[in-house]
Design a protein that fits this description.
The complex is a heterodimer.
Chain A (H helix, E strand, L loop, with lengths): L15 H28 L5 H8 L5 H29 L7 H30 L1
Chain B lengths: L1 E2 L2 E2 L16 E2 L6 E3 L2 E2 L2 H9 L19 H5 L18 H5 L5 H12 L7 H8 L13 H5 L6 H14 L3
Antiparallel strand pairs in B: 1-2, 1-3, 4-5
Classes of the chains: A mainly alpha, B mainly alpha.
Chain lengths: 128, 169
């Protein structure tokens, strides 16, 4: 059974491993929540194109566009960090290099997220 | 105990190396009895589950059960465990699920699973292959960082996971 710590409010000072795990979990849940919405909006096709188009049009809303950028950020982190976890899972020797692997993940993340945010951000600004 | 937010052995840490003021707390995931004292029994119960002893029913040879240096090196790292519980109580999975066997139990299983003289590897892999076993590990590496003996704990757990999947010893 899960047990709450007796003293809430103190945080264990873990390293990259602990924080990348926490981020992985948060981004995973965020992507899952989006998936529910996505399944719901796609299912609307069944009610005819007019209805579907109307609902999907809501995605042009600036708030949703901002959330879209967040979604891209979450998916990208989850994907890259997921590859790192797979590598460590299938090649135990990689466990000794997990910090370097995480640095590679961060590096790749920056390289990929900057153009994504640039182009999506441009769309967002135009939608205002 | 937790010293400035991380699991350390008080007997190994020098005050001069710590940032002031020093904050000490009892280890997490185990019930606090008083002050810094916790009930270690659940920790040892998990340890006992993995059969942490040599199992070999074959007739004993006249002299020692010989082992090559390479065979011995296979599990050298995990022989260093002193059962201090620094790894298990640094694990976020163990904090929220005390049914999880925890890093220390898996490390001690590793010590015998990869021992060429032992014959109960299959049994241990069966125990660690269940829902509360090695696959509960989410590779947060807190255990590896916390180990005062420098054991590559997460790597040992990953090797056990592989052994469960492929029975590759």
């Amino acid at each position: 059974m899960a047990r709450l710590p007796e003293r809430l409010g103190t945080v264990y000072k873990g390293g990259q491993g602990q924080w990348s795990w926490a981020l992985h979990r948060i981004s995973g849940v965020a992507v899952l929540l989006f998936l529910f919405v996505h399944i719901a909006d796609t299912a609307l096709v069944g009610f005819g194109p007019k209805f579907y188009n109307q609902v999907v049009h809501a995605y042009h809303n600036p708030v949703i566009r901002l959330l879209e950028i967040g979604l891209a950020a979450m998916v990208l982190f989850h994907a890259l960090n997921g590859l790192r976890i797979i590598l460590i899972d299938f090649f135990p020797k990689m466990a000794d290099y997990h910090k370097q692997l995480f640095q590679i993940v961060v590096g790749l993340y920056i390289v990929l997220i900057v153009p994504a945010v640039f182009f999506m951000g441009r769309g967002f600004i135009r939608s205002l | 105990m937790l010293i400035n937010g991380v699991n350390r052995l008080a007997c190994k840490v020098l005050i001069k190396d710590l940032k002031q003021p020093i904050k000490i707390e009892p280890i997490r995931g185990l019930k606090v009895e008083k002050d810094l004292v916790v009930d270690m029994e659940p920790f040892f119960a998990q340890y006992r589950k993995v059969l942490p002893f040599l199992v070999n029913d074959e007739p004993a040879p006249e002299r020692e059960r010989l082992q090559s240096p390479e065979e011995r090196a296979r599990f050298d790292d995990t022989t260093k465990c002193i059962l201090c519980a620094a790894c298990t109580t640094s694990c976020p999975v163990y904090w929220s699920d005390d049914e999880y066997h925890g890093p220390a139990a898996i490390v001690n299983a590793h010590r015998f699973i990869f021992d060429s003289r032992d014959r109960a590897a299959h049994e241990r892999l069966e125990i660690l292959g269940d829902a509360e076993g090695a696959f509960k590990c989410r590779t947060t590496f807190n255990c590896t960082d916390a180990c005062p003996r420098g054991i590559h704990v997460t790597r040992a757990i990953q090797e056990v996971k592989q052994a469960i999947l492929f029975e590759k010893l």
